[in-house]
Design brief:
mainly beta; 5-stranded mixed sheet; 35% strand; Immunoglobulin-like; 271 residues; 1% helix; globular; 4-stranded mixed sheet; 1 helix
Length: 271
């Protein structure tokens, strides 16, 4: 089972903040200020979460993208459970064919493909998704492990083209029972940007691709500075039940069920 949250994913595509506009009257500066990094030395492989804007899912780093997908699936990119932190290893490296315009000029695309057969497919009956928390009830402001999972619900192997979960920020949005927007407060919010990479994951029948990270049961409150930057602090969510949603980091030409395009979960906050 998987967990609801605000998330940082790596994928190429539209900015995460673009899929649902912030409430009217809230400015969204192009570059939100991040907390200053601590000068304290980190252990090898450690991840300084203070470098992230508030409200993002803290995803531990995956391996370096030293392997390329060239018609075969690298280890860690296929099977019954794929850890999406390993997605950089699954980078597709098939060149697109040259394109010639009406004037006869040839254009070569810098991005790479996973192969024509993987694009434009209908996966509405093939792929399911869940967003769940490690425990259903947390304290206000408490951090909890969240999981976003995509499951192959067919009896055959299923290839899915993802956007990178390490190059892309995806906000997991928070809504109160009264419909109040609780992801961001104050003067500004934050969104995400991405590169153009495509990544292939091959799921066994019934297999899942999972992204896990920790999330704080808080609202990220931004204060707009005279410089145009935003300074964020976190305010614990008040007691209550919340709906959370996250946009799937999957390449957009693949047709998905709406419950997979935007994955929802719930969590309860209380003392």
């Amino acid at each position: 089972m998987l967990a609801p949250a605000i998330v940082a994913l790596g994928c190429g595509g539209a900015g995460a903040g673009a899929h649902r506009p912030a409430p009217q009257g809230r400015a969204t500066p192009g570059a939100a200020a991040r907390p200053a990094a601590s000068s304290a030395a980190l252990a090898p492989g450690a991840f300084d979460t203070r470098l992230l804007p508030p409200g993002l899912l803290d995803v531990p780093p995956g391996p370096d993208p030293t392997l390329a997908f060239r018609g075969t699936i690298p280890e860690g990119c296929a099977g019954a459970e794929v850890d999406l932190r390993r997605l950089p290893l699954c980078h597709c490296q098939i060149p697109y064919p040259p394109e010639r315009d009406e004037d006869g000029r040839v254009t070569l695309r810098a991005s790479m493909s996973c192969g024509e057969g993987f694009y434009g497919r209908d996966l509405t009956r093939s792929l399911a998704a869940t967003l769940t928390a490690e425990k259903p009830r947390v304290l206000p402001g408490e951090r909890v492990l969240l999981s976003l999972a995509f499951q192959n619900v067919t009896n055959k192997d299923l290839g899915v083209v993802f956007r990178s979960t390490m190059a892309f920020s995806t906000v997991v949005e928070v809504w109160g029972e009264d419909g109040a927007y609780r992801t961001f407060g104050g003067d500004c919010g934050t969104g995400g940007g991405a590169g153009a990479g495509h990544y292939m994951v091959l799921l066994a029948p019934g297999g899942t691709a999972v992204l896990r990270g920790s999330w704080s049961a808080s609202t990220a409150v931004g204060v707009l500075q005279p410089s145009g930057d935003c300074l964020f602090h976190q305010e614990p969510l008040p007691a209550g039940k919340y709906r959370l949603s996250m946009r799937a980091p999957i390449e957009a030409s693949q047709k998905l069920a709406e419950s997979v395009v935007e994955v929802e979960g719930t969590i309860e906050v209380g003392d």
